[in-house]
Amino acid sequence: MRYSRMFIPTVKEAPADAEITSHRLMIRAGLIRKVASGTYTYLPLGWRSLLKIIAIVREEMNKAGAQEILVPSMQPLELWDKTGRSTDYGPTMFRLEDRHGKGSVLGPTAEEIFTTLAAGEIKSYKQLPVNLYQISPKFRDEFRPRFGPIRSREFIMKDAYSFDADAQGLDKSYRAMYDAYCRIFKRCGLEYVIVQAEVGEMGGSGSHQFTVPCESGEDTIVYTEDGSYAANLERAAVDPLPKGNGRCLAGTPVVPVEIPPMQEVHTPNVGSIEAVCAFLKTQPKDMIKTLIYAAGDGAVAALVRGDHEINNEKLSQAIGTKHVELADQPTIEKVTGAKVGFAGPMGIGDNVSKMVIDHAVAAMAVSITGANKTDYHTKNVVPGRDFPLQGQNIAVADIRYAVKGDTYNGKKLLFKKGIEVGQVFKLGTKYSEKLGAKFLDENGTEKPCLMGCYGIGINRILASAIELSNDDNGIIWPITIAPVEVIITCANQEDDRVADAAENVYQQLLAAGIDVLLDDRPIHGGAKFKDADLIGIPIRITVGKKSLAEGKVEIKLRAESQSRRVPAESAANKVVELVNSLKQKLQV
Ligand code: ATP
Ligand code: MG
Q1: 396 backbone dihedrals φ, ψ, rounded to 5°
Q2: What is the pLDDT of residues 196-252, one digit of tens each?
Q3: I need a labelling partner for 136 at 20 to 30 A (CA). Which of 38, 39, 186, 414 fits?
Q4: Beta strands in 526-562 (DSSP E)
């Protein structure tokens, strides 16, 4: 490839909506251009990198025994109605209607299609196990598309679906995908951590998420220093706190103090935790938030400390429902008998189908909470004395997000930001039962297939790699997914001797099968160096008048500051060696 013929529109400035480094650099280096909110065109260099990632993913998937197919992105809405996910996916799913009024969706994922395919084709245990995958565009109407290709509305996903006859089979298929993912991310040059994850609307019994730790990530990884536990924030469990508003250390005996009886205080128009704290000169951690949720056909009261946040996933598990959402204003007023902002646990037990109390609330020695009376709060509330911690419809459970200072299994929890690049799920029979993917076992008994599903965000791999590896001058690619491996910068294009020497090295590298770009543009050498650094090509050969006078050219790695001079005639060989050694480091 000759730079002079390539479409590489590098720019000095990134637009203001490019908030993070990778997004800015992808635009500046001419990899992508925005089309509309959350949709991007991949220009030649960006697309070359994506294709390299796709090739790695494809190779490892095939090696792991999965088979590639392609299913339509436009999927019948009725399949999504059958699994109930047309509701569960909510507004994230793009819908359309054809001229006959028939509904379709633009696939945000493809469990329904793959399971329906299996339902039609798989009859016997002899056809199992089978693992099918595709690499194709997916569509999600993200609430807030941002960070360029990291959270976009159209992106390329590799999604695989395994079908097994029994639980051991599923374990094996899951493990094969888990291992393939480790190889894929290593080969793409990504540092990653694997965390336990929530199954969310996907459903199923277990899941792991592959996350690239970095500051700009939207996910939070929660882990213990010894590596014995790692989960994402949605999933991370916490130990119950020691008794006493979390103020005493574990193991310290709590000195029993006589708490005076409850006392109502007038708190006119102060409903929020912050406002109440300011008004009563107290702290959020000494308050109880009582939140009323709608779950199934009843209302549920959920109690967390004022400084904690309810985790809806944990709450729904504690209640045993799939979905919870905050109740509407009339329901809250009916349950509490007060305006929104003054709910408390005292005396509302009969008005809710369940009361779920976070461990940390149960551990409070004393607290302030809403009085179930408009404009009033109650002081000196002692959990267990003033409202029950046990009972038929009462449960104490872990229903909040972990925070700094929490422990799990007695070990301190640490927090790190990260980007989710892939996730694997054990789905079990959720989809196969609903869509009739059944087979006859050895005894002729009909059983639903056990399924797993496995997703990788191709574009996120690209963006994460840039996010992890860059400097003030631009991108620093891992060689395996760089748009080109080597650039030859001809520093004095106008000088025929220099241009010929550069051409010579170029031809040798092409012959050696190296992915090489010759910068033959008739522009100043300095501008070429700037572009090479911005684009981030791992190896640069500079052919310039001065060094060539001594028969030498310069070789420099993008990741290093030092360059070295080698005789022009041995440059190609030297660079082939370098390419191989950089690749070697990312081999599995
Ligand atoms: P997130 O929690 O970040 O929204 P998700 O858990 O909903 O992602 P999955 O359904 O697990 O995503 O999809 C598989 C993979 O597809 C993800 O691991 C991620 O790499 C990628 N992906 C998901 N949503 C997007 C998006 N909006 N833009 C780009 N890639 C995405
Ligand atoms: Mg996910």
Answers
A1: -100, 125
A2: 987 766 666 789 999 999 999 999 999 999 989 999 999 899 999 887 754 444 444
A3: 186
A4: 539-543, 552-557
- Rounded to whole angstroms, how far apart are CA atoms 132 and 130? 7
Q: Which residues contact 175 (CB under 8 A, 6 or more apart)?
A: none
Distance from residue 457's CA to the centre of ligand 1 (Å): 6
Cis peptide before 149 (omega within 30 of 0): no
Nearest CA to ligand 1 atom 30: 457
Does residue 357 sit in helix, strand or coil? strand
Indicate which residue's Cα is closest to atom 31 of ligand 1: 457
In the predicted model, what is the mean pLDDT of residues 344-353? 93
Cα distance between residue 212 and residue 192, in whole Å: 4
Span from the CA of 27 to the centroid of ligand 2 (angstroms): 26
- Ligand 1 centre to CA of 130 (Å) is 24
CA of 150 from ligand 1 middle (Å) equals: 8
Q: Can you tell me the distance from the alpha carbon of 271 to that of 540, in angstroms, rounded to the nearest whole number?
A: 63
Q: Quick check: CB of 209 below 6 Å from ligand 1?
A: no
> Smallest Cα–Cα separation from 488: which of 470, 475, 503?
503
For position 250, what pLDDT does the model report?
42
Is residue 533 a contact partner of residue 559, using CB atoms and an 8 Å limit? no
Residue 166, CA atoms < 13 Å, CB-side half-sphere: 6
pLDDT 10s digits, 149-167: 999 999 999 999 999 999 9
From 129, 155, 57, 140, select the one nearest 106 (Cα to Cα).
140
109 lines ligand 1 (CB under 6 A): yes
CB 264 within 8 A of CB 381: no
Residue-level pLDDT at 199: 72
- Atom of ligand 1 lying closest to residue 142 CA: 27
Write out the two tokens for 83: 């699994």
Q: With a threshold of 0.70, does the pTM exceed it?
A: yes
Burial of 320 (0-12, 13-18, 19+ CB in 10 A): exposed
Angle of CA points 504, 510, 511, to nearest 5°: 90
**Cα of 309 from ligand 2 centre, angstroms:** 22
Residues by chain with Cβ below 5 Å of ion ligand 2: 423
User: Measured from the CB, is residue 89 less than 6 Å from ligand 1?
Assistant: no
Is residue 541 within 8 Å of residue 23, measured between CB atoms?
no
Q: Is the CB of 148 under 6 A from ligand 1?
A: no
**What's the half-sphere exposure (Cβ side, CA atoms, 13 Å) at 180?**
26
Ligand nearest to the CA of 39: 1
Question: CA 484, 487, 488: angle at the middle one, nearest 5?
Answer: 155
Mutate to test the pocket of ligand 1, among 188, 420, 456, 462 (most ligand atoms within 8 A of CB): 420
Expressed in angstroms and rounded, the spacing between residue 175 Cα and the centre of ligand 2 is: 17
Do 180 and 159 touch, CB atoms closer than 8 A? no
Q: Which atom of ligand 1 is nearest to the CA of 455?
A: 14
